[in-house]
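Need a sequence for this fold. Nothing fancy.
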């Protein structure tokens, strides 16, 4: 049994962890990450500066990313930041920065061993600048190294300066759930800024597709321009450090299909033809009727009434568990030996139940 769980663990560690972008890129790096087809990714990056006393005023630097995966490693999206450098022309009074982009991952897959390459053309509406990034990642085991070259046709906050920026970073995964990362990037001919840097502690929230990072940086936005330039102080000469966090939320569009297509078709999994002696509904992310009693040789049927997937997974692998049970799916399992079988749902470990077999 132990060998099986070790093999499963190795498989899980080797498989690309979809949407776990913060375990594969530093805070100021785009990396080669592209959402899967029919997945919309929403990333919320919030940084803030705390002014020295006595005011300790907090100045906020939020950046939002919304990106949708299409197919063939292509995604399109936008970033919106509210506290960037002021723009040019009609945008001269505004610090609201919008960048629209397309990313094509030409080679590799996020989290897979070896090289991945992504090409990201973009347009920065505030700077009226045509921007682009070539990103290369190299992953081996727990380590990912990243490099990026960025071209900018009009630098924000300057009279239309052309720029080239280079950036590099690393991610070290300490466990499946925890990684540390850092990066450094700069325009080759900085006008008013300095190099942008960041360091972060990145976490995968267990049992969820979400990643979260706690970070420090001197960059005020997550756009190509913002990530290439460190902000200078408000004339105090002291170090300008922003602290913050990022939260990544993949939205799987197929999960919303019941809104448009009614209930999905019923799917029956597990032992067919067994005598079902007890029914357990999975509803509101709970096993309703969490304790059932049957006789040896009888079966239990679990039916998923939720719009999300569940599993029936026996603690200590006392019995083989179910595959993923889709919404409106059911799973039948026959128990041949008397005993007390506790189980849970793998995606929602707080969902628990028990089958008592007499
Ligand atoms: Cu569940």
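Here you go.
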């Amino acid at each position: 049994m132990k060998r099986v769980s070790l093999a499963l663990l190795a498989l899980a560690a080797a498989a690309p962890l979809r949407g776990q972008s913060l375990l594969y890129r530093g805070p100021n790096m785009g990396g080669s990450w592209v959402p899967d087809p029919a997945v919309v990714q929403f990333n919320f990056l919030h940084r803030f500066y705390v002014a020295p006393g006595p005011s300790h005023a907090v100045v906020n630097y939020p950046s939002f990313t919304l990106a949708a995966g299409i197919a063939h490693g292509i995604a399109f999206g936008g970033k919106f930041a509210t506290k960037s450098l002021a723009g040019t022309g009609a945008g001269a009074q505004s610090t609201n920065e919008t960048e629209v982009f397309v990313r094509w991952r030409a080679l590799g897959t996020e989290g897979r061993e070896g090289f991945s390459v992504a090409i990201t053309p973009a347009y920065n509406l505030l700077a009226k600048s045509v921007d682009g990034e070539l990103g290369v990642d190299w992953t081996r085991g727990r380590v990912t190294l990243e490099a990026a070259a960025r071209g900018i046709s009009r630098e924000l906050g300057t009279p239309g300066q052309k720029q080239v920026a280079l950036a590099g970073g690393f991610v070290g995964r300490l466990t499946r759930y925890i990684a540390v990362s850092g990066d450094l990037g700069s325009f080759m001919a900085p006008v008013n800024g300095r190099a942008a840097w960041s360091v972060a502690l990145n976490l995968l929230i267990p049992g969820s597709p979400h990643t979260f990072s706690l970070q420090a940086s001197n960059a005020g936005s997550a756009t190509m321009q913002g990530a290439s330039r460190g902000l200078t102080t408000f004339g105090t000469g002291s170090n300008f450090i922003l602290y913050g966090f990022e939260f990544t939320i993949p939205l799987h569009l197929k999960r919303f299909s019941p809104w448009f297509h009614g209930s999905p078709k019923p799917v029956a999994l597990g032992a067919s033809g067994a005598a079902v002696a007890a029914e357990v509904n999975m509803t509101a992310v709970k096993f309703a009727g969490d304790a059932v009693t049957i006789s040896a040789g009888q079966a239990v049927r679990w039916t998923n009434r939720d719009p999300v997937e569940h599993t029936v997974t026996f603690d200590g692998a006392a019995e083989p568990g179910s595959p993923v049970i889709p919404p409106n799916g059911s799973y039948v399992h026959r128990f041949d030996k008397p005993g007390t079988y506790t189980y849970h749902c793998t995606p929602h470990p707080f969902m628990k139940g028990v089958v008592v077999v007499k």
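For context: Residues 1-17 have pLDDT under 50 and may be disordered.
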